[in-house]
Amino acid sequence: xxxxxxxxxxxxxxxxxxxxxxxxxxxxxxxxxxxxxxxxxxxxxxxxxxxxxxxxxxxxxxxxxxxxxxxxxxxxxxxxxxxxxxxxxxxxxxxxxxxxxxxxxxxxxxxxxxxxxxxxxxxxxxxxxxxxxxxxxxxxxxxxxxxxxxxxxxxxxxxxxxxxxxxxxxxxxxxxxxxxxxxxxxxxxxxxxxxxxxxxxxxxxxxxxxxxxxxxxxxxxxxxxxxxxxxxxxxxxxxxxxxxxxxxxxxxxxxxxxxxxxxxxxxxxxxxxxxxxxxxxxxxxxxxxxxxxxxxxxxxxxxxxxxxxxxxxxxxxxxxxxxxxxxxxxxxxxxxxxxxxxxxxxxxxxxxxxxxxxxxxxxxxxxxxxxxxxxxxxxxxxxxxxxxxxxxxxxxxxxxxxxxxxxxxxxxxxxxxxxxxxxxxxxxxxxxxxxxxxxxxxxxxxxxxxxxxxxxxxxxxxxxxxxxxxxxxxxxxxxxxxxxxxxxxxxxxxxxxxxxxxxxxxxxxxxxxxxxxxxxxxxxxxxxxxxxxxxxxxxxxxxxxxxxxxxxxxxxxxxxxxxxxxxxxxxxxxxxxxxxxxxxxxxxxxxxxxxxxxxxxxxxxxxxxxxxxxxxxxxxxxxxxxxxxxxxxxxxxxxxxxxxxxxxxxxxxxxxxxxxxxxxxxxxxxxxxxxxxxxxxxxxxxxxxxxxxxxxxxxxxxxxxxxxxxxxxxxxxxxxxxxxxxxxxxxxxxxxxxxxxxxxxxxxxxxxxxxxxxxxxxxxxxxxxxxxxxxxxxxxxxxxxxxxxxxxxxxxxxxxxxxxxxxxxx
Length: 810
Prior knowledge:
Blueprint: H1 2-17, H2 19-48, E1 59-65, E2 74-75, E3 77-78, H3 80-87, E4 92-106, E5 112-119, H4 123-127, E6 133-134, E7 150-153, H5 155-162, E8 172-175, E9 178-185, E10 197-200, E11 211-217, H6 223-238, E12 250-255, H7 256-261, H8 264-296, H9 298-306, H10 311-347, H11 363-388, H12 393-399, H13 408-443, E13 454-460, H14 469-484, E14 489-494, E15 505-508, E16 510-511, E17 521-527, H15 531-535, E18 539-542, H16 547-551, E19 556-560, H17 561-567, E20 577-579, E21 591-592, E22 600-606, E23 621-625, E24 629-630, E25 634-640, H18 644-658, E26 663-669, H19 670-714, H20 716-724, H21 729-766, H22 773-799, H23 803-807
Parallel strand pairs: 5-10, 7-9, 17-23, 19-22
Antiparallel strand pairs: 1-2, 1-11, 1-12, 3-11, 4-5, 4-8, 4-11, 6-9, 7-10, 8-9, 13-25, 13-26, 14-25, 15-17, 16-20, 18-22, 19-23, 20-22, 21-24
Helix pairs in contact: 1-10, 2-8, 2-10, 2-11, 8-11, 8-13, 8-19, 8-21, 9-12, 10-11, 13-19, 13-21, 13-22, 19-21, 19-22, 21-22
């Protein structure tokens, strides 16, 4: 213990003599460790511990995809009888059911739109997360003859609407004029379904009342076995009903994180790899600095050896200094990581991460940082310690000078470290360029519609209002027309099943002239006649249905180009007839027009608009009047002549004048929605990759500057002699730069090779191709420019040496 304390005291004395070295080394490590700690906080919160739920690793989504396996299309919806069959399935341990709806919070304040989650009473027992306040509902709370309805508030809704008051427990709230007793507040990380209010519900025996089902598998069950078992069950559910919306679907089992993250998990892994590369570059910098400083200390080390210090003793001392430096850098890095995590969390796209994920610098992350500090201290300290612990005793003592070059080994090691730095920096820069290029390509991909100056808004009507099909349709049109009359609004449309970018729902279709197409499927988009004007989707042939046809649900439709190409072989589609049996739905909350599954006459063709995400081809689509199937609420698409954000408030005020009980919610610009569907993730990856590449470039430039400066210092006498013999300043500059060209060339060669080798991995996980010549050329030129700038100053300083002073150095 005494020897260790002696090493520490000696290390502190050495650091006091070289504050510039300590500051440069600590900052290099702080950048690397800070970035790595911040990124590990994201990785841990999102990939390792994203959900607070009990046995969340066995909670899965059951997706129903089309026969090609593409998806997701929809989750497994079941009625009461089918729910009981699910519970008896051998591979399933438990199931809970869910539906959500917009309701209105009324009382002493203005009406507020609330997302109410209706859940089977076993929800909280299934999840296993204790409440923050009060209690959670159980089966007894949903039993017949029980007391007044109860509700559990989400943490965010409780903070936003009630100011986090603990007095809310056992108070009542009114949702659509129905009183609920608040019995609890959910834990902060309990955000399932993004519900504002959780209420227990009992599934009725109505065969067409469907609920979303979420299952937990038994331990050890394979997903393939579950999918096969549920596929048999699903086929049994649908065999008696040709119009069942779940018919001809392929079951897929997807984990919670796969559903939310998809390929984005791979992007996070690539980003973590990038910060590890950044950390290695920072460690390389410190190794270079320690080698340079250690060479200057070789006389001191030789003296210590001469008085009896062994090699192990010297290595221990040098490693103590290295680890102390690393811990200092780690402390600064963790402080930076606290702020960095907050910044990263703010730029994360809204639907990119699980909302339950707690992204923070927690105890696990701090333990990781401490281990990282020790590991990096040993990593960058071991080679300099090994090199410097065996000084050439006789030679150094005879030289009697701290300016001795230390032999060729140190120079070779410097060149090797710099080449490695440059190679890793080039890989990071190429990755950043590829991610940026992929993001720009995505944002410039033709959408088929104009998203600028458009916002979406959901309108909720009072519960029980508009009980008939005609009343509901008239209420929808009254709202739409009221919005269009607001100054600054160019056009408004009702879009029941289609949000641009994601499409509507996939359904089986029949084409009268093509009776052999028994497996044809298309996107069914229920829209109003103003949809194409709002989105600037071009009409290519025929006409658009008018308001009169909408109000009587005329059997007319439009199709897109993809439909014509895939099913009609390019022939004239006007007058063609199509239909879909799924339109004859039987659900209590839906009001359906007369004979919705009868033949629809195609009266027009419109341009292709993205309807299967932003990076997939457009699917065949059929556009028909939204009046065929009316849902309880109204979804509006609104085009403005000015800033859509500013117009949202104006539209809300206008609707409040039309009907004080109307409540609006879920209002965002269309650009915001597109950001959540892909643009935001691409921007996030490109931003972080660019930040890490910029830091790597700064560190590499610092390392290169240090090496060239050190080389100039070591060659002071040689350069003085050359200048005394008549060497010109330009020649000296060229001589210094030429000595680094081989190192630069080697670094670039290795970096290009690594970039090409890693291209497929980066492309598959994060998108973007590193192999693109333009990407590699741009990254290489920028790195060359920075490398030249880093070398110029010390080279020019070398050319400014006074020959007489240089000759007197030794």
